[in-house]
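WARN  no MSA supplied for this record, continuing single-sequence
INFO  ligand: NAP
INFO  echoing inputs
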Amino acid sequence: MSDFLTRAEYQNIAEHLTLPTEAFINGEFVAARSGKRMETVNPATGNIIAEIAACGVEDVDYAVQCARAAFERGDWSQKHPTERKEILHKFCELMRANMVELAVLESYDSGKPVSECLTVDLPETIHSFEWHAEIADKRYDSLAPTGLDAVGLIVREAIGVVACVLPWNFPLMMAGWKMGPALAEGNSVVVKPASVTALSTLRIAELASEAGIPDGVVNVLPGPGGIAGEALGLHPDVDVVSFTGSTVVGRKFLQYSSQSNLKKIVLELGGKSPFVVLDDVKDYSKVVENAAAASFWNMGQNCTGNSRLIIPRSRKDEFVELFLQEIEQNWSTGDPFEPTHNLGSMVSKGHFETVMSYIEQGTKEGGKILTGGEPLAIGSGLFIPPTVFESVVKDATIAKEEIFGPVTAIMPVDSDEEALALANDTEYGLQATLFTDSVKKAHQYGRALKAGTVSVNCFCEGDATTPFGGYKMSGFGGRDNGIQAHDQYTETKTLWIDLN
Ligand code: NAP
Ligand code: MG
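INFO  complex generated
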């Protein structure tokens, strides 16, 4: 804790921030052409922080045109990969130099605890850009096994104009996951951040320009999803959309693509991830620690949030006792600028109401709340403490639908087989957590769980080196992270040279 500033100091930094309120297109901040603006709020206080550009179809057209012109100009797309890498590293240095300011900005606009922004969001965002930058001059193309009469080169080329449509739960981190590999490969990007959390992405666009990324390569357009997001999805000169958000909107992008130019679509969507404890687990101390993180981290506004805790019935009472102790001791909710808090405010009034309605529904359907359930009366903020439902049945709404809040359900089972079947009984497949004392079961159950990431004896999504994305309705068309993320921002070309 000693490395953190005080609540008052973070508040003071926030009050003196210069807020980026316009769109960033072709290397400069510009107002939306319509002159329209939208409010962005600090959800922890309800105060309006700023009015930002609300971009529309004409702004999307202009940004895509600038991105395409930059791509064709070649001062980024054709730059030597090592030089691209070096400029991206300079960009990372600038983010690091401005880390406290960026973390405060992220917290201020989203309600996330500033301590989390400083220790997770910012370091991971920067690491993501750095890791992908390193791939720029380290990944080799390949050569086909031809006879001596021909050379068959299989090369990857930057795809062109990449649209990144972002969610509000990890604003900068998702920007890093998508912009990192896209830029490293030489593409131009047009980024549409979520409307409620656009400020930090606008600020890093300015830093990207300062680092020497040429004009038109990085463009950031805040704007309503149904207008600016749709315009990107339908645009005939966008080559790929990389989207993170809800399954409902993800489906729309597939329609936009089919109605326009068949652009590639990559979707990272929702989840209903299970936390499975097999009956061989002896010590529950690590189990409850991870169950709390899996359920409540980022106020449960986490696509891999585990909201189905599948526990052996014979150990349920022990689990409940230790789990409630863990929550009581280690999970405090309140003012995001107070660095001792690890849960801040829900992102918006609308989302707060959605989560509260799930809690109500859970109770109506017979669920018993063991802790939480009521919002905390702190100013006009939107604070929901960790909420645990006991003995939830598999057909209950809160056991089936994604809640995206700090609400979790204990679902006792009578055997490991039942646990596995229940874990897989969902239309989603983003992530699953598995606890076992057996290496054999780690492998066998790990393979049998239908999810893009299975975390064994931990709650972890992997890191920059490991691909991240969903099975079933949790994803489509590709993966973020890992070298695999680069595939979606490149085309594969065969260059066949006849030597006769
Ligand atoms: P969302 O409503 O789907 O919004 C995501 C983005 O799409 C925002 O930028 C939004 O703009 C835009 N958008 C909204 N309607 C659109 C439309 N009709 N056409 C084009 N774009 C549109 O999701 P969210 O509420 O921000 O995020 C929560 C969801 O994201 C959860 O379901 C969660 O599971 C999922 N998520 C998944 C991952 C993953 O990696 N799989 C990660 C994080 C979150 P506005 O902001 O203007 O509405
Ligand atoms: Mg906001």
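The mean pLDDT is 97.
INFO  checksum written, moving to next record
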